[in-house]
Structures are given as C-alpha cells and as structure tokens.
Amino acid sequence: MADTYVRMERVSKRFGDSVAVNNVSLDIHKGEIFCLLGGSGCGKTTLLRMLAGFEQPTSGAIYIDGQDLAGIPPYERPVNMMFQSYALFPHMSVHANVSFGLEQEGLARAEIRRRVAEILDIVKLGEYAQRKPHQLSGGQRQRVALARSLVKRPKLLLLDEPLGALDRKLREHTQFELISIQERLGVTCVVVTHDQEEAMTLATRVGVMNRGEIVQVGTPREIYEFPSTRFVADFIGSVNLFAGRLTEDEPDHVRVSCGELPAPVFIDHGMSAPPAADCWVAIRPEKIDLTRTAPAQTDNWAHGVIINIAYLGDMSVYLVRLAGGREVRITQTNRTRKPEEQFKWDESVYLSWDASSPVVGVG
Amino acid sequence: MSTRAPRWGRALVGAVPLGWLLLFFMVPFIIVFGISFSQAQLSIPPYAPLWEWVEGQVLALRLHFANYAFLFTDALYISSYLYSLKVAAVSTVLCLLLGYPMAYGMARAAPATRSLLLMLVILPFWTSFLLRVYAWIGLLKNNGVINNVLMSLGVIHHPIVMMQTDFAVYIGIVYSYLPFMILPLYSNLEKHERTLLEAAADLGARPWKAFVRITLPLSRPGIIAGALLVFIPAVGEYVIPSLLGRTDQLMIGRVLSDEFFENRDWPVASAVAIAMLLLLVVPIVIFQRYQSRTLVHR
C-alpha cells in the first residue's frame, strides 16, 4: 500500500444553510493522480478550493505531507493549481506567466530563467516564450497553465477540469501527454472533473462524489465494474438497472427475480442481505449478448424487439423493448462487415449475459 | 448585390460622428484659428477680416502672427499656462489617489451594493455644477462651516484662510472631477477576472504583490482614460478658480475669458485658445502613438 501524502479528516464546508462538502475523509497517495468525479454542485470544486486554500473548511482538517494546512493562506501552501479557465495573466508573456511564481520565491534570475526554460521545454512551448496568451491556441494556453503550475515543483498539483476547454481530438492527445509529464515529474495530482472519460483515463484512483459526500473510492476499473451503490452504477457509464427481490442467497451465488425480466438473474457470488430483501441489479450494455436464437440457459436471459439502432462506427447501440415494455440498452462491437451479422430494426432478439456480469446491491 | 446595403449602412454609421465633429468641432476650430491670425479693431465683429478684395481684383490675405508672439512677450500668459498645467496635474494625481480605492471598492462590492454606489457617484450631477462650487464657498470661507465648527470645538482660535488659495482650487477641482476618474476606473476594474488574483495567490504572491503585478497593470487603460478626462478639462477650468482661487495668479481659462469679454481682443483670445489646444493635443497624440506601439509589441 502506498503511503498517504494528502489526508483529509472529516472535512465539511457549509455556505450558510447549504452543505457543499459533508464529512469527507480521504487519503491520497504520493505520486498518484486522484480524480474527484461528480456532477455539478456535488462539492468537488469546493473540496479542491479547500486544498488550494481559497476556502477554509468549516470543520475537519487537511494535511499535506504531515503538515496541517489550517490557517495557511494560499500563497504559503506547497500547492499549485491549474485553473479551469487557465487564469493566465493576459498582460504578461508566456515566459513572464511561468516565471511569476518563481519570482515570488525570490530565486536568482539565472535560476528562474533556467527552470522556466526547462518546464517550457517539457510542455513543448520553448519557442512561444515571448508570445502573449491571446496569441496562443487553446491547447497552447492549457500547456502554459500547466507549466506555470508545475514550475514551482509543488507537493500537490490541483487540476480543475484540465481538459474541459479542449476539443475532442486535442483532449485525447493532451490526456496522455499530461500523464507522461506527471509520471516524469512524479508530482501528486488531484483532478476535479465531471467527465468520466477524463477521470477514467487520467486517474490512478477515482473518488465519486454526490451531494457533498464521497460515495466510492477505487481504481477506474473498480468503480466501473464493481460500483458499490446504485448511484455510482448509474452515474458511471451507462447501465441497465432493474429493481428486484432476492430469492436465493447462498455463499457462492444469489438469485434475483426482477419483475421486468422473464427469467431470474443469477449472480456468481454471495451477498450479505436479509432474505427476500429488495435489491437492484445493474447490467452494463456491453456485457449483454444479442442472438437470434434462444440461449440454452434458464437464468440470465430476456426476449424483445429492436426498436432503435445507433450506428457509431466501431460499435452499435441497440435499444430492445422487452415483453413488459421495459427498454434495455445493448452495445455490440461491429467486428465484421458481413451484412447477415447486422441486426435490423423490429427484429426479434434474445438477450443473455454471463453470471459474473450483473452487479447486485441493496438500497 | 448582398454587400451593397451593409457597405452603405456602414458608411452612414461612420458619417454621423464624422459630421458631428466636422460641424461642432472642426468648423468652430477653423473660425477661431482664423481669428487668431487677424487684427483687433473697433468694429462688429471686433477684428479685421483675414482677406479682402483690393480694388475688386486682387484677393489680399493678411495674416498677423503678432498675436502668438504677444503670448511670449507678456509673462502673464506663460505663468498662467504653467500654473494651469500644475493645478491640472496635481488635481489629476489627487483624483487618482482618491478615486482608485473608491472604484476598486465598488468593483469588489456585492452586485446589489454596486449599483447603489454607482448611483451615489453620479448623484452630484443632478444638481447644478455652479451651485455645488458655491456650496464650497460656504464651507471654506472664514466664517464658513468648517472654520465655525473647528473654532467652536476649540481646535483653532483664528479662522484658517482657505478661500482664494491653491488649496481651495484643488478641493473644488478634485471634488468636481472625481466622478470622471471613478467611472472609467470602475468600468475597467469591474471586468477583471477574480481568478487572476487567485492564480497570483496560488503562485505565492501576497495580496499587495498581486495587486501591484496584476490588478494595477491591467487597470492601466482605466487610469489613462480617467486621467485624461480629469486633466484636459481641468487645464481650461474657469469657474472653479474664479470662485475659489487666487486673485494674484490666474489660470489660463480665466485669462482667455478676460481677453474675450473684458479686453474684447478676440484675436489674442483666439491665439490663447489655440495655444492651449496645442499644449494639450500634442502631448496626448504623442502619448497615444506610444501607447498603440507598445500594444502592437505585446
């Protein structure tokens, strides 16, 4: 287990009557990229601003590298932030923007020049040093902002929606560039984002936030494949959620009967819940198989009619209406170009899935 | 076809301010400029025509440069010019020192408070400018409000002479022109992104340092606009120094009006006016040229 570098202990923040952050405890490891993921108003930005020192927690404590940050103003924290709007100083050149932070430390001119040149080199902006921010493209501005926050070698780097303002192609490119720079410099990062794709690709671990609380912390794979709550299952990716009732609860499997499905859902692990408890079952669209013939199994299947197809190139999204009227979302990769393998509108199809695929939970 | 109408419309839009300037600035300027080269005489109008037909055949043009030369021979004019520039410069600096914190406070206030403060700044314009300057006489004179209060409190035993001093002129000008400094500064400061100061703090700059490095340079256009709006009218100010100011040292606006109305020497008065204009326009044009050049280089 990696060592804890940033620790939040029962941190809460209230603005008047509303609770922005509610009793959050969180450990962030040295050198990792930790993503705070959540919808707007979930408290993720407030949490970030408390780390930067722009907001003070109403209660609780924040430690970085063992140092209690209470009462330390932003300009004395070993923390730097890359702002969502970049907040580049418009009247200063790229070089002046990046050297600003070092000048505040009172470093020698030669040292400042060396470190600015070094970081501009890393973000590949060496030849743009004399440009003003308004003479740069969006992607270049983003890199200036990154360089400016990295040049002080902070113990903790905060990134507020770092890729939000970039177009799709540039995002993907920048995403990987960001990771490689982070690995090279070994800086610990906290990223705030509402974009799960951004969180998934950047993060070592993700903390999913809802209504001021952290509802699940885990690797991108963990929160996608093993969501601990109905909210996380629904929030991350797309999912088919069914309400059901436990009919069998054995150590090695459970069976759930869902009113909207013709057959029971069989799941290959046990759970601890009261007998016959109400529960939810979540099945990801890509984990459902579409076939024209009925599957052999007695559990884990359904039957319906394709009512909508979205062709996305690499894959297709099918909307299937079951006998009871429930619509289920299924994605299939388009592995061949054979026309006979393509499903068509109004086609009658069978749905089936593996016993390891559904996620089951109570409450 | 499609570009015709917009082009025509654009020309019209440009023609309105151009026509306005031509009619109300350029034409009077040319008239005054012409008069400044003429010669005073007892007639209506009280100056000799610039040109006339000699024997109905030759157009004779008579330009007198003596009016301008006269400005340099009489010490009154030069000292009035210098005094006007000094009063205007000091007043501008005082307006900036007072107006900047006020504009900054307004820009940082809550939106609801902001519009209230803005109205308070504009409020004095609702009463007559002349009345407000007269009110200062009531405050500043020997048995005025300020002296009476100080004497009744026992702070002073003899009234402080404030009327007919430079002090009174500065009070009058700063008081009257402060809104012209505050408004452009406020409209500039209000647009500043708050996150820039957060970024500066995040990078290790204390609040004061962030102000000097970020807010102040970014408010430069507001400072320049405010300074010009105060300085230019203050140089030619007539009412305030006449009512509150010294009698032994006149400002150029007063000299100008005396030449027109007391001496009825329109040509010299016109020369005074043209000289004042050059005195103001030349440095401003040079300054703006420099401004736009630094903007290009950025």
Secondary-structure blueprint:
The complex is a heterodimer of chains A (363) and B (298).
Chain A (H helix, E strand, L loop, with lengths): L3 E12 L2 E12 L3 E5 L6 H9 L6 E6 L2 E2 L10 E4 L11 H11 L4 H14 L15 H13 L5 E5 L7 H18 L2 E6 L2 H7 L2 E6 L2 E6 L1 H6 L4 H6 L4 E10 L4 E5 L6 E3 L10 E6 L4 E4 L9 E11 L3 E8 L4 E7 L14 E6 L5 E3 L2
Helix pairs in contact in A: 2-3, 2-4, 3-4
Chain B lengths: L3 H32 L15 E4 L3 E4 L4 H8 L1 H34 L2 H12 L6 H12 L4 H8 L13 H24 L4 H9 L4 H12 L1 H16 L3 H6 L7 H11 L3 H32 L1
Q: And the CATH topology of the largest domain in chain A? A: Rossmann fold
What would you report as the Rg of chain B, rounded to the nearest angstrom? 25 Å
Greatest interface and its residue counts? Answer: A-B, 25 and 18 residues
Q: Tell me the CATH architecture of the largest domain in chain A.
A: 3-Layer(aba) Sandwich
Give a short summary of the structure.
The complex is a heterodimer of chains A (363) and B (298). In chain A, 23% of the residues lie in helices and 35% in strands.
Task: Outline the structure in words.
The complex is a heterodimer of chains A (363) and B (298). Chain A has 363 residues and is an alpha+beta fold. Chain A is built from 8 helices and 20 strands. In chain A, the strands form 4 sheets. In chain A, strands 6-7-8-3-9-10 form a 6-stranded mixed sheet, with helices on both faces. Chain A has a 5-stranded antiparallel sheet with strand order 13-12-11-14-20. In chain A, 36% of the residues are buried. Chain B is mostly helical. Chain B has a domain at 74-264: MetI-like fold, CATH 1.10.3720. Helix content of chain B is 72%, strand content 3%. Chain B has a two-stranded antiparallel sheet with strand order 1-2. In chain B, a hairpin with a 3-residue loop joins strand 1 (51-54) and strand 2 (58-61).
Kindly list the characteristics that best describe this protein.
heterodimer; A: 363 residues; alpha+beta; Rossmann fold; OB fold (Dihydrolipoamide Acetyltransferase, E2P); 2 domains; six-stranded mixed beta sheet; five-stranded antiparallel beta sheet; 8 helices; 35% strand; B: 298 residues; mainly alpha; MetI-like fold; two-stranded antiparallel sheet; 13 helices; 72% helix
